[in-house]
Each structure stands twice: as structure tokens, then as C-alpha cells.
Amino acid sequence: MIDRTQVAAATGKLPSAQSTSLDAAAAAAFAATAAPGAVVAVRSPQGTWVSAYGVSDLTTKEPLTPDVYHRIGSVTKTFTTTVIMQLVSQKKLSLSDPISDYVPNVPHGSEITILELANMTSGIANYTDDLEFMKLYLTDYSIIWTVDQRLATAFAMPRTSAPGAEFHYSNTNTVLLGEVIEKITGHPLAEELLRRILDPLRLTHTSYPLASAVLPEPHAHGYTSLGIVDDAISGNAPTRDSTAWNVSQAGASGEIVSTVDDLLVYGRALGTGQDLLPRDAQIARLSSFPTPAGYGIGLNCVQGWLGHNGQVPGYNTALYYDTRTDTTVVVEVNGDHPVGAAGITPADSIFYAVAAALGRAVEGAP
Predict the structure, then answer these.
(1) How far is CA 300 from CA 9, 166, 341, in A?
(2) Which residues have a catalytic role annotated?
(3) CATH number reported for the structural domain that contains residue 184 in this entry
(4) What is the domain count for the chain?
(5) Is there a contact between 185 and 193 (Cβ–Cβ < 8 Å)?
(6) pTM for the full predicted model
(7) Which of 66, 158, 254, 285 has the fewest CB atoms within 10 Å, counting from its CB?
(8) In this structure, what is the dihedral angle of CA atoms 54, 36, 253, 119, given to the nearest 10 degrees?
């Protein structure tokens, strides 16, 4: 882990001048999105600031509050890969092991390593890139997708590259890593996440819902612009309320539900390794990025900001930890209509504005 003790002031209130600056930046960035609402949080050695904007329900116009439960989408990948690194540190697994040692019938499985799954260079196709899969998912929201269904879809698709040849983001990779965890431990992934991450960090408002579409109270309604338009997947379809959609299609790659308070704790632990990984394992993870702005073992690195974004229909999240200033930023948004010509998510758009207000702007960010 990184030897960095959190000062007592970090959990107190951020000084008013900085809170005002962050509020102005977040409010302006939120206003530039089409999202119904957003919760934005910052924790640094100087203190903590949390604020909510907009509404949680477009029908009732109920204001959004900071305590809502939220689907965090692909931020889940950081949890799954953290457990993988714990197993590596316990010598129950090696990053050089082929996936065929743990999961049968993976095309070219003997050539694909655990590391290549974790850093998205396996060449295995992303099942959510399959049009027929997404047509069904975006029209029948009650389907409980099994791991076998998701893997069968991916394995029937052409591979994107030879193993290790190039980066290609694929949910299939993390679904397979979830299967590895269950194979090695003999326990469901949900149990291992609870025992290895949620309990040690006291993340009492974070859960892996096991294909349940029910969100705990309080929660915001999610609103999605994802749909099938002219026989293609579009991010500009008519807006629909996706709150009750089953997100079992995401599984180990994107099914976790959490709150900003829990994510502030987790984001810092993810960046430092404290209470999650031994020092050597954390250093290995933070050394896994191919470039200063790349994807490592279940983590993005963006000019010193470590973390991940996530999206499932109607909900998107940005979680990043700044290695230079010991600062964690969390953004949760209950709408997914893309922002600007670059088509970034509302959560990422707000994160970029907050990072700039903190004096740690992401150069070149749209």
C-alpha cells in the first residue's frame, strides 16, 4: 500500500472558500448536461464537501439528496480486480496463469492470461457490443442474464485482437474474472466482495444485488437515452425511466450499488491500497499502466487521477483518486444522455470541472 495516513480534518467540512469554488464548478457543469440530478463529493486532507443538484424524480420533481443509493456500473470492475489482486498476493493465483486453468471453453483460453483480462488486452469480444444481445436487453428489462448466456454471446463473436496485442474494453473480461474468484474461493462473488472489501472498509451501504432490480431507499429514479433506433444502438433514443431495470447483464463487471459516502472511503482505499492490498501488490497494480493515461489492472490512470467511470442505463458514476494531493472525487448522475460533441457521460463531464476547480485539471478533457 501507499504509506499515507488520512488526517482527522479530512472527514470534517471543507473550508467555505473552497466549498464555494467547488459548488460553482459542479453546478455549472451539471447545468450543461441533460441529466435530472447529480451528487458530487470531494474529500481531501483539508476536509469533505458533498452537494446534490437537480431532482431524483422527473414526475414529482423531488430534489435529489446526497444519501441516495446508486448503481455504479463499471466502477464494479475495480472491486472485482481488487479481489483478484488479493488472491495474487495470497499466492492462490498468478497474473500469468491462463484463463483455461479456471474457466473451460474460452476460445484461445490457453493463450489468454489473467493479467490480459484485467487490463483489457485479452482480445475477447465485449458481449454488450453484440446488437442482438442489446436489442433484447433494451426491450425486455426483466431478463435475469446468466453468466453462461453472456459468455456464449461473447465467444460467438470474432476476437478483437490476438491476446496481449492491443487494448479493447470488454465487459466479458471482468465477468470471467468473477468466475475465477468463485472457482478459487469456492464462494459466490458477492460473499467474497463482502468479506474482502465491504466489511474491512465498513462499506455498509454498498451491495452486490445478485440480479435483483430493487434499489434500497432512498434512491433516485434513473433516466436513460439508450435504445434501439433504426436497428442500431443509440444514445439518443427517447428518454425512459430505467429505475426498475434488471442489470444482471453487468454482473461482476457492473452490478454494484453504493452511495457517495461509501465511495469516498473506497476511492481512497483503492488509490492507496490501505486495508485492501499489501504494499507490493498495490505497487504492482499502480505500475500496470502502459502509458501515463492508460488502463491497468481494473483501473484508469488519467494524469495522476486513478479510478474508473461506470454506466448502466439511467445511472453513471465517476470515481477518481488524485495521487498527488490525496483527494477523492465521486460523481453520481441519474441520467445518461451524452454531453457535447465528444459524447462523454454527465458524470465524467462534472468530474473534469471539479478536478479543474481543485487545481488538478485533466489536460485535454472535453
Answers:
(1) 28, 16, 22
(2) 74
(3) 3.40.710.10
(4) 1
(5) no
(6) 0.96
(7) 158
(8) -80
